[in-house]
Amino acid sequence: MADSDKIVRALLRKHGRTFSEELGIRLRSSTPSALFRWLCAALLFSARINNKIAMEAARTLTKHGWTSAKKMQAATWKQRAVALNRAGYARYDEKTSRMLADTSELLLDHYRGDLRKLREAAKHDPRRERELLMECKGIGDVGADIFFREVQVVWPEYAPFADNVALKSARKLGLPAKADGLAKLVSKEDFPRLLAALVRCALAKDYAAIKKSAL
Predict the structure, then answer these.
(1) CA-based nearest residue to 214, from 203, 201, 204
(2) Which residues contact 21 (CB under 8 A, 6 or more apart)?
(3) Domain identity same for 9 and 110
(4) Where in the sequence is the domain holding 127, given as residue range(s)?
(5) Span 68-123, pLDDT tens digits
(6) Structural domain tally of the chain?
(7) Which among 43, 170, 22 has a CA at the least distance from the CA of 106?
(8) What φ, ψ does residue 206 adopt, rounded to 5°?
(9) Of 203, 194, 128, nearest to 161 (Cα)?
(10) CA distance readout (Å), 109 to 20, 73, 117, 131, 170
């Protein structure tokens, strides 16, 4: 039976790319635009829709230049809805267009469009950060989990954090099913990569292949 280190190496080798990296979002820069784009992606990913479609929808927002709360709010409801629909996000295009506008308005009204100011308002308290983030339209528990899963690399007070999808995947692979245990298997910088790999493994349902390649 493969040991944990071998399984982790197999995971990172096959799936070790964060979702923010795939979207070209440099979260480590911690800029208002990077954080906003990742929040929008988390909102899109949290819907019950195919991951590839959600990814394409997130790319579409960037292609249209809606990379900040101000720019997102400046677009019309119809422009956002049409763009999402063309990206394949058809079932949720109209509702999501409204949520993106409402979220942008909230961020502009309360934090001048800068999620770093939300963090400051929460006084770097993880529980309060989550509460404030979930005031954004379209961000429930799943969306918050997705956001913090990768943003913990720049908001270390939230680390180590692992969402339920990653933990269930870890359990199926025989890895620790708690965030603290998983965090001990990799460096702090690689932890979001491991979580992303676990989520991708769950999406691909290739647990057996990962285990085999780790032997």
Answers:
(1) 201
(2) none
(3) no
(4) 26-158
(5) 999 999 999 999 999 999 999 988 889 999 999 999 999 999 999 999 999 999 99
(6) 2
(7) 43
(8) -110, 40
(9) 194
(10) 26, 12, 11, 17, 40
